[in-house]
Amino acid sequence: MANYLELFISETEQYIKQLDKELLNLESNKKNLPSILEVFRVFHTIKGMAQTMGFDDLALVSHRIEDLLGDAKSKGEINSIILDFLFVVVDFLNESLQAIKDKKETPPSTEIIDIIEKLKKGEEVKIERGKKVAKEITEIRIKMEKLDKLFNLTNELMIARSRLLILSRQTGDSGLIATTETVSRHISSLQDEVMRLRMLPLLTVFEFFPRWLRDEAKRQQKGVEFAIVGGEIEVDRSIIDVLKEPLLHLLRNALDHGIQEKGTISLTAIRERERIRISVSDNGRGINLEEVRQQAIERNIITTVEAQYLNKEDLYRILVNPNFSTKKTVSTISGRGIGLDIVNSTITKLGGKLEIISEFGKGSCFTVELPLSLAIVRGMIFILNGQRFALPLSYIQETFYAEELSFKTVYHRELYPLRDEILPLVRVGEKLGYPSKPGRKSVIVSKYQGIRRGFVTDGIIGEEEIVVKKLDPLLPHTLFSGCSIHSDGLPILILDPGGLG
Question: How far apart are CA 157 and CA 150, in angstroms?
């Protein structure tokens, strides 16, 4: 509730400023109809917000002002006495808002309401404006593009910091090292603060869904209870920007194909360290995995022999196969494939994953797991013929050294016997057009969309926090997801495991 209160105070302050502006316009021209309508709209908005927050006096005053402005709206002209009185009402709103900030009792509205009733009856009233007290500025609004510029400059400082630390240690000067480490701490603190400025509550995107779901359920003549949990959790703006469409797909599937006549849909978010998990669950019909198996055979996604050995997780992966999801499915499968390939593709590109749990006849739960920020990731830095590359750590399961002689080739595909499995190998150098050095190799085991692969590299430098930058549009985006600058000042290309195959 505290987050909602902060939002209410912030929004109301902006509306009060707007009222002051429009009332001053009306003092210059009492027949300014757009200003009259704007004043009416602002009071109507404040009324709704105050009702939601339980501030009954503010809601009542705003409601009565709406009534009072009825004649001005219809005639296109505002009475001078009413105009003077509205300045008094704005002062009342300011005093009430300050009391709410200070956690004190709001001023009584009795006198204001009494004057409104007299004005409505045409009785004579004496209007006295109170002395305006200058308010301390505790909050400012900033355009997102300016914040993005500040964020980018801070990231440049982070890159320079890494370089500076290396150079200062190379000199061996204790004074320089101490100063550099102090500067480094300040840059880290600055970066943390800028990251906090970019954080937005998930409610920023979640608040769109209740009305949309209500309208869709009504259109389909279904009774749906909708619950949101965890909307107050904050994530980086880069996540907010891309979250709406995947969640909309999942909610649409839950309503269209999970809920039959009546049911419950929940949208739940929880934070686990540096990652966020968002689940869309329903208590509808669930997924019939045997029907999924049969449909996959009919569409030639799998053979009859392969189908016998598929477990539950394998069948869930079929649901996100584009060849499965782009065609209509029978109702017993709950239509879960529609749109899931899009959701899975979007989430995977963001360094996340889609999890599916379902029980036929009882319901389903689709969970999206994502990093809290896309701007800074932990990556594993490796080398190919002297050039540095990186893989996001979220995809990596383990690493090991291996001699090329231990690689096996079966049907033109290189494999490696790793414990109790046969690991498919991908020579990253060949994919990128880099000649590979002979000898011992470093293999990075990555899991992408449920498939494990071993990426063969010349050597591993280590793990680092990487500031992700956008790529030039001319580069092949199937291979790369971004770029960065290493601590020695040289560029690093960040590879996309999906593009490497």
Answer: 11
